[in-house]
Amino acid sequence: MESSSVPVYYGDEYLTQETRDLLSSLPSEKGWLVSQMYQFEGSWQTQALLQGIVNCQKHFEANESDVILSTLPKSGTTWLKALLFALINRHKFPVSGNHPLLVTNPHSLVPFLEGDYYVSPDVNFSELPSPRLIQTHIPYHLLPVSVKRSSCKIVYCCRSPKDTFVSLWHFGRKLAPEETAGYPIETAVEAFCQGKFIGGPFWDLVLEYWYESRKNPDKVLFITYEELKKQTEVEIKRIAEFIGCGFAAEEEVSEIVKLCSFESLSSLEVNRQGKLPIIGIESNAFFRKGEIGGWRDTLSESLAEVIDKTTEEKLGGSGLKFSC
Ligand code: PAP
């Protein structure tokens, strides 16, 4: 590990010689939060997640009934893990009962595809109940072939670039204050806009899923954090229809939305204390503000303009717009 405070996905604990050889052939840059990031087929990754991507490209076999939740980091992953878990399992775990989300962090209920494949190439998801719900941050073009070929469903959620950046900025500073100290926010914004940020380039990778959802709406459902926040019930019903488990009762929808709200999840003991198993990230690091437009507390007007300008340049003509 590079540092004891850095979580497993930013370290090198499980890195194989094969990955080390691959890394030595790739362009790399000094990163923020990690000492090096690697450019792998159009995206910037940590060495750990890169190993996970390569492993799951080789070994992961999608089932026809799988539901894949895809996001860029800090775009609503935790929230959607909770919503999708509650939705898919609502007959097994009625929301009014002793629900697993009341005692388990959403990240421990839904596996992280490339994260698990980083730790071991022999991951076995076959024991997950059907439909399997699996989460990933993998760009569309790097998804395992079987995910694209099978009729499994992909729910993709993105978030306004300024809020995504700011959320990641605070996440890193909370997790690894020493590693991130001395890295000015101006430099981080510049790197983000150049795409040289963990999980980047933001706009190009969001657009891949955007265009795919336009081309193949039965395969990829494209949603945004902002719409999910503004009209959670409408969006969750859309997701339910898409994955083939529409709601019969309005009551059920509102109960799921309430259970998974920021206020509800962030106040639970399990999400306030302790660290997640294996990855070692503090559970409460996934719950900060949960707002639309929260970037205003962190970004100056001029830094916000830098990101807005990049957004205009990158998204112009795509039909995709962010409201904040
Ligand atoms: P990940 O991709 O690393 O898993 P992710 O869950 O996407 O992280 O991002 C965390 C963000 O989602 C935080 O945003 P903030 O920093 O702007 O506050 C977090 O607060 C927010 N979040 C977590 N749970 C919820 C929820 N139930 N409702 C709304 N936002 C949430």
TrEMBL record:
Keywords: Transferase
Name used for this protein in its record: Sulfotransferase
Record-level Gene Ontology MF annotations: sulfotransferase activity
Family the entry assigns: Belongs to the sulfotransferase 1 family.
Taxonomic lineage from the root: Eukaryota, Viridiplantae, Streptophyta, Embryophyta, Tracheophyta
Listed PANTHER family: SULFOTRANSFERASE SULT
Keyword Transferase among UniProt keywords: yes
Known EC number: 2.8.2.-
Domain of life assignment: Eukaryota
Residue ranges of every copy of the Sulfotransferase domain listed in the record: 65-319
Enzyme class, spelled out: transferase
